[in-house]
Amino acid sequence: MGTTLQLAFGDVPAHLLHWPWNAVIAANYLYLLVLAFAFSDRSRFLRTLWDDRACVSSMVSVLVMTIVYGLVRQDGSHDGLTGVLGFTRMSSSWPFCLILFHFMTSLGIRSVSEAASIVHIGRHCRNGSWRFPLRSIARTAAHISLYVLIFAGMFGSGDKTVCRVTARTGVPVGMHASMDGEAAGLPFTILLREFSMDEYPPELHLLDTAGNIASEEYLSVTGEGVCGVVGEWGLYVDRYMDMAGRMPGDTAYRAMRHVGAVPAVYVVAENKAIGERRSGWVSCGSRIFRASFLGLDGETVIFMPPPEARGYLSRITVADGKGRTEDFDVEVNHPARFGSWRIYQTGYDTSAGKWSSVSVLECVRDPWYWLVHAALWVMLASGLLMFLASGGRDKADVPVEKAERREVR
User: Fold this and answer.
1) Phi, psi (5° rounding) for residue 57?
2) SS3 for 346?
3) What is the pLDDT of residues 118-153, one digit of tens each?
4) How much is the pLDDT for 29?
5) What Pfam families does its record include (predicted)?
6) Best label site of 70, 86, 220, 319, fewest CB within 10 Å?
7) Residues 313, 305: contact at Cβ < 8 Å?
C-alpha cells in the first residue's frame, strides 16, 4: 500500500502537519485510540491492532526500515529504484511513514490498556506485593514515553524550523537561508564577535608524486625532538613552530603572529638501507604562504596536510526586537538557547582554517521539543523503576498478573 501511494502521489505532503492542522489531527487520533481500546472487546479487528502479533510485526518492520534508512544515502534523489520508492527521502516516504504509523498505533493502544490496568495496583499492594505493581508502572511508563517520542516526532515535524546562518566577524546578521535555499528573516540578529579553533598536531606523511598517493603512516609533530619511522625513512623533528611564515626570497621559516601563519617543521629524514639523508622545511601552507615539501628521491616527498580541527567555537551576541541581548559561546554539540530557538555550530570557512572570519550556524526551532524532553526523562525514570523492581516474583503475584491480563483484554 505504501509503495502504491509513493508511486501514485509522491512524498507525504508535509503541509498537512503544520499548526493548527497537526494539533487537530493529533487530538482526533488520540481520541480514536481510546475508542479502539474501549471497543476492542466487541471487535476482533480492533483487537488485532494491538495484540502481541501486531506489536511484534510492526516493531520488526520499523527495525527493517530503520536499517534501510541507515544504509541508503539520504540525498533527496529521485533516480534509480531507491529514489522512486522514496528511500532516499525516507522520513517523507509513504512506506516508512505508514509502517511507523502502524507501530505507533499498536503501541498507543497498548499504552492505553496498560494505563487502564494501573487502577488494579492498589489491590496488589494490599496483598503485600510491591514488585509487580512497580514493574507494571515501569513498563507502562516506558511504553508511554516511547509512544510520546514517536508521536511528537511525527505530528510535530511540520512545525520544526531549521535554517542556516552565515555570520561574519563584526557584521550583524538577521537573515537566514532555509534548507531549500530560500532566504527569510529571523526574529533576532546574530553578531559574531570571535571565531577560534583548536587543531590537532600537524602530521608528516610520505607522498608518492607519481600516483599522488599519501602514506597511511605518519609522524605526529607534538614538539621538537619528536622522531619516528614512516615507510623506509626515519624522521626527526629538529625545529618546530606552530605559527610561522616564509617571506619571498627567504629559505627559512620564522615565527610570526599573523593572519595566515602556518605550522612549520624543519625535519631530518634518513634512509639507512640506501644511505640517504635529507633535511629541510615542511609546511602545509595557507592562502598567504605557499606549502613546502622535502624531496627524498625522484618520486617521494615529505608533506604536511592542513591540520584537522579538534574543535571550534563561536562567540556570538544574540539580540531581538524587544531589547533582549545575550552573549553565548557556541561549540559543536553545545548549542546556545535563545527563547524557543537553539543555535548550533555547524561549520566555518575551511579554506581559511583557524583564521576563518566566517562561522556557519544552524538555528532550530521545535515547539514540540519540551514534550520530547519530558518523554526522555520519563523513560529514564522507568528504567530506574525496572531496576528497583527486579528480582524474583512472589508466588502470590503470578495468578494476580494472569487475572489482570484477562481483565484488560
Assistant:
1) -65, -40
2) strand
3) 766 655 555 555 556 778 888 899 999 999 999 998
4) 95
5) ResB
6) 70
7) no
